[in-house]
Amino acid sequence: MRTSIFLFVFLMVNILQAQTVIESSAPVNDFIIDGNEIIVATTKGTVDVYDITSKKLLRSVKFDKTIDFAGDLFDTEVFKVVKVGNTIIAVTRGENGFNDVYAIINDQKEIIIPGNRINSVIVSIAVSDDNNLLLGLLSNELLKYDIINNEIIFREQISNYAFSAMCIDSKGEYLYVTDESGEVHKVESSSGNVLSNYKGQNVDNVLCIDYSSGIIVCGGKDRRISTYNTLLNRDSHFDTGKFITTIAISPSGKRIAWYDTDTDNVELAWLANPSGVTQLIKHKSMVNKIVFTSETTLVSAGIDNKIVFWNLNK
């Protein structure tokens, strides 16, 4: 039997200042950490690679401008990046409302999935345990794609609601997919089969999701942060009073961080005590991604051209 817990949180706020900042070449949509490098997707049509220690730009791949419906040129925005082996995979704005998928090898780019091939908008991307691409489509389909043989392995409908967000476990075996209904679906990456459904804690469109150590965390338009403990079969949520558009959970599943749309700060809390909030102060506008790189380190980036590294022990 699933147990649900509701918390109304009175926040007790502490403040933490940024330790290291990389000034990006453009507003940041997405990033991944790869050893001592950070690979960044920007709104201005570039995939930039920075050395984390020196904060220097090592290389940059620029996409040609795209022609819009009126015949005007605009920047080919890069929405998402992942890495398969030595290949960077980038989801970019395409023509006619679709998104394209490119492979970048040795700073050379090649389109591997034109958006009109799948006839749906690619919203999110992940890498499965067998190094194939997993594409979350606006139609709430999950598409698995073999980039070596250039073929679709499966295309499965997850639900009848519009897709919102997805994340994948550390081994690449299971995805957690959510949509405008507020429900979360656990999906097997090898088959696309829906194994479990989690619901009841969000009552509107879920905008962001993360998973670690058996814990799912979600945030959405209902101004709630919800938690599903898949190991103990317990659910809970607390109200924040604001839209939650970006969220992250630590490797142990004990800490969460989210973007505060009112202050542009990142907020940090222990799941066991969500009322004790620490504000991470540096960003000046929307934060598009937050990642815990360990229990005590965090990286955040957004449209203020800042990639911020936080030491949570200081």
CATH superfamily: YVTN repeat-like/Quinoprotein amine dehydrogenase
Q: Total number of helical segments?
A: 1
What's the CATH first level? Mainly Beta
Going by helix content, strand content and strand pairing, the class is: mainly beta
For the record, the CATH architecture stands as 7 Propeller
What's the β-strand tally?
32
Helix content: under 10%
Uncertain stretches of 5 or more adjacent residues: 6-12
**CATH fold-type name:** Methylamine Dehydrogenase, Chain H
**Distance between termini?**
41 Å
The portion of residues forming beta strands comes to over 45%
Kindly provide the radius of gyration, computed on alpha-carbon positions and rounded to a whole number of angstroms.
Answer: 19 Å
How would you characterize the largest beta sheet?
A: 5 strands, mixed
Can you list the strand order of the major beta sheet? Answer: 1-25-24-23-22
Mean pLDDT: 92
Count of the domains: 1
Q: Please tell me what the overall shape is.
A: globular
Summarize the helices and strands and which ones pair or pack:
Layout: E1 3-7, E2 12-17, E3 20-23, E4 28-34, E5 37-42, E6 46-51, E7 57-62, E8 66-67, E9 73-74, E10 78-84, E11 87-93, E12 99-105, E13 108-113, H1 115-118, E14 122-127, E15 133-137, E16 141-146, E17 151-157, E18 163-168, E19 174-179, E20 184-188, E21 194-198, E22 206-212, E23 215-220, E24 224-229, E25 234-239, E26 247-249, E27 255-259, E28 266-270, E29 273-281, E30 287-292, E31 297-302, E32 306-311
Parallel strand pairs: 1-25, 2-29
Antiparallel strand pairs: 3-32, 4-5, 5-6, 6-7, 8-9, 10-11, 11-12, 12-13, 14-15, 15-16, 16-17, 18-19, 19-20, 20-21, 22-23, 23-24, 24-25, 26-27, 27-28, 28-29, 30-31, 31-32
